[in-house]
Amino acid sequence: MIHVIVPTHLRTLAKINGEVLLDVAAPVTQRAILDALEARYPTLRGTVREHEKQQRRPLLRFFACGLDVSHEPDDAPLPDAVASGAEPFWIVGAVAGG
Question: I need a surface site. Which of 50, 75, 88, 96 has the fewest CB within 10 A?
């Protein structure tokens, strides 16, 4: 099972309480995790990725094992610790301000 940490505003939107556990087949990639997340919580479609191009929304970042993987290819395998469920896959809302 893959552990996914979703930002508060998206948890509220999808009525998620806490961490999400997803069953994702190997290879575990950003695309595979996000496909599973959107299938389980359809209200998140279009909020994490754009509808048409399926690209990450600009104010969201993805982290795996403490590394920012936001600009990695969508189909690149994530670290084994994420694939095994030992470490979570984080979706983080960017902090902006002036």
Answer: 96
